């Protein structure tokens, strides 16, 4: 595994900067193209919406006309007149005379046979009268079938046109979707990702094996390893997008290694700032005390966050063969707590000097502020070392003398 130096760091930073600039330019170009495409698609959507509204209005008119026809339709029931049978019997006047002769005792001759029955069919009834006209205002109107026929023919023709237009609209929507897919496939960003997958496939396979088999005893080695891996991955246009094409990539372990390295680096940087703190006498007292309190706040906040998640984090680090002892009070966390003793010493010495001067010899609040800060560090670090204890005794002695004077 290569060891990073200044030249290598500068080289990797340049490579990372070039990759970032290339990615930004590609994204800007793609954004410009997509804006034009969005404008064109919006115009198509507005056209389709207008066409849809027109179709809805036509359908609504059809529905209204149908309702009008059903409500105004006259149902005329005709009762057919069945032909009646009429039988006419022709009688001879001689029968009357014969009947009279019977009364006189003369037997009549048998009557001649009756003539055949004649069936006379009545003429069928005349057609029904025309529909009654309905008065409207001072005029009368009647329904004209020709109007309905002409209207239906026009509606049929319009429906055929709508079907043709509807198929064209669907084709345009399908064409738009195909165009969007084509734009995505031809995007320079996606093209760059595909190119990186093909170009750096062997390197990424090698890095996969290195990350999977990585096991360290010191957290400083983890920091150097993560720095090397990041340098190898800096040539990619988009690390996450490219690594998605490699399912064997140990994403969980790689992310945990980075987390451990960055946490260790942040704590060490904070420790360096505390140890490098310079309590210059030329600096105003209030400003110096404020800086000390700010550094102490950062120390307590960082250590508190580590201690809250220390149990779960240690378990996860052990599982992935990552050093975890530095999280304990015997490791980096303990070193940070001890570094806060310097802040306590500087604070008490500065306040002691101020109390010895004539201007602040009677300032009881200043003494209380120094003792309060010393107690805060004492509780945080778990006690004082010899040098810090000596500074505390000096402050206590000066404070006692001032109280006697008062």
Automatic annotation (TrEMBL):
Record key words, sorted: Coiled coil
Keyword Coiled coil listed: yes
InterPro entries documented for this protein: CHUP1/IPGA1-like
The keyword Cell membrane is annotated on this UniProt entry: no
One of the GO BP terms on file: protein localization to cortical microtubule cytoskeleton
Coiled-coil spans in chain: 17-51
Cellular component terms per the entry's GO annotation: cortical microtubule
PANTHER family in UniProt: CHUP1-LIKE PROTEIN (PTHR31342:SF48), PROTEIN CHUP1, CHLOROPLASTIC (PTHR31342)
Protein name: Protein CHUP1, chloroplastic
Organism expressing this protein natively: Tagetes erecta (African marigold)
